[in-house]
Amino acid sequence: MVRSLRFFTIALVALMLAGLASACGSKEAAPSASAPPASAAASGTASPEESAAPSASADASETRVYKDVSGREVTIPVKPQRVFALWNVGDMLALGAKPVGSTQAMLRFYNEEEKSGIEELGDGSNMEAILALTPDLIFASARTPAEQIEAYSKVAPVVVTPFFGDPFESLDIVADVLGKQAEKEAWLERYEARVAEAKEKLQPVVKPGETAIVYQYALKSIYVYRTSVFRTLYETLGFAPPERLKELQQDATFSSEQLTEEALPDFSGDRIFIVVNDEDSRDTMSSVEQGSVWKGLPAVQANQVYRLHQRISMADAYTLYWALDEIPRLLLGQS
Questions:
Q1: In the chain, fewer beta carbons within 10 Å around the N or the C end?
Q2: Amino acid 40: pLDDT
Q3: Is residue 174 one of the residues assigned to a domain?
Q4: Residue 25: its pLDDT value, please?
Q5: Mean per-residue pLDDT for 134-145?
Q6: 88 within 8 A of 178, measured Cβ to Cβ
Q7: Which residue, 121, 126, 129, is CA-closest to 3?
Q8: Residue-range definition of the domain harbouring residue 45
Q9: What is the C-alpha separation between 83 and 126, in angstroms, rounded?
Q10: Are strands 101-102 and 83-85 parallel, antiparallel or unpaired?
Q11: How far is the C-alpha of 58 from the C-alpha of 41, rounded, in Å?
Q12: In a domain, 198, yes or no
């Protein structure tokens, strides 16, 4: 069973790298969000550290039946107190909660302060280690195979959530499961205020109709993705995708495209954002940037190339909030 769990984790890591987010080891520290998206002062609830500890209240023993996105009906605590998060770490952080444990693949996207107090359990295949944390709930993504859900369910009830679904839908699901609707509403208010602030900051430097592209280096290759993957850049801040990307998105099944170096000009925008997902891909990026194709791109010649931290790929609620600081910071040339 442990062997099969490890195989699943490796497969998920590869999928995140090739698709939307990297799960290879990286020593680059994740930048922090500018402020905790939820706090005891704002919501009147326990701090993230406190929420990970067992509760002495009656809520700890009360249960309810919850139907998750896979259609499973699961008996879960009314107020889960000790969550092991194979997924949804960012959603929990946005709600002012912290899981008792998670995996290296998930926690690598967050900085030391954000993941403080969360036990990192490698690839999540060690059931005895998870059991030792005495979780009362486990979050898993919809990409988790049924046999693995069954295995984790022997440790604690498992709630399946969307795999890179709509971030606001995912936040709503996690808030419902954790009983943190008030915290969710408070976060949404802060988020909308941060959106308005970011747009105001960028108004003097970003022209209407400017195009942008995100080149993501992963597994020694270059990828571009649907604009929905980088929601903050396109939908929120209003950058337009290059025409070639628009064409690809006409196909509803399109999710990503692996590019050759020669194809970069077809996808280039007024501004280029670079995401490097693993150390091996840094060499690929360096090689590309030494070539004549890269040097001839208008955005490169205009010095409008920006390096985004790989956490942008997660696109969870906590990362959306972070991106509203990070993208304006890069565009305004702030350190």
A1: C
A2: 36
A3: yes
A4: 35
A5: 97
A6: no
A7: 126
A8: 2-17+26-189
A9: 16
A10: parallel
A11: 23
A12: no
